[in-house]
Amino acid sequence: MNRHLSLAFVVALAIAAAGCQRLGWSSSRPAPLPATPTPPVASEPLAPLPGTEQTGLPSDQQQPFGTEEQQVAAAPLEPPADAKEIGRSDLLGGWSIASGADNCKLFMTLTTWSGGYRANSRGCNSSDLQRISAWDLSGKQVVLKDESGATVAQLYSAGAEQFSGQTSGGQAISVYR
After folding, report:
1. Fewer CB within 10 A of the end CB, N or C, for the chain?
2. Region for 93 from its dihedrals, namely left if φ exceeds 0, alpha if ψ lies in -120 to 50, beta otherwise
3. Rounded distance, CA 126 to CA 129, Å?
4. Calpha distance 100→81 (Å, rounded)
5. Do residues 77 and 138 lie in contact, with contact meaning Cβ atoms separated by under 8 Å?
6. Which residues partner with 166 through β-bridges?
7. Which of these, 165, 177, 84, lies nearest to 128 by C-alpha position?
8. Domain 92-176 is in which class?
């Protein structure tokens, strides 16, 4: 009986060892896949965001920053003829901001804050956009404010899920999803 038990153990061990691929006894391993060639990466200039295009001058004749834009900042931003009514709930949540070379995030909530509701920006390089702490509605206009209540930017609806306007420094700004 002991001999049958030993024989059964040896047979079971042989079957287990034959089925184990980790020991390297199996020559039926699949060959590795060849590397997939990738095409070279192409680059081209990005198109401007809707509502932020420069008007009038070709790109090689545009005014440098800090000249005409500073004069525009003194005048209040007039609403476009096609500006739509905006509700507070239309503005809640996360948004992307594009202003000059800045592309960052804006988050708006309905938590009351001095001069409106709580807002904050993330990843902005511009000191103006970093100061955003609040937002409020004034008719058809969205006003972004700093913690003291001073206006950082004024925006109007520019289509579905997009607002365009200017910063208090006169630079074009677009907020979109």
Report:
1. N
2. left
3. 5
4. 25
5. no
6. 154, 172
7. 165
8. mainly beta
Distances (CA, A) of 109 to 93, 147, 163: 6, 15, 17
The DSSP symbol for 122 reads: E
Question: What is the token pair recorded at 125?
Answer: 């390089």
pLDDT tens per residue across span 68-80: 444 344 345 677 7
Q: Domain spans of the chain?
A: 92-176
pLDDT digits (tens, 9 = 90+) for 16-54: 776 665 555 556 777 887 877 777 777 777 777 776 655
Q: CA-based Rg of the chain, rounded to a whole angstrom? A: 31
Mark out the alpha helices in the chain (DSSP H runs).
2-19, 68-74, 127-130
What's the predicted TM-score (pTM) here?
0.56
Strand-pairing partners, residue 155, are 142, 165
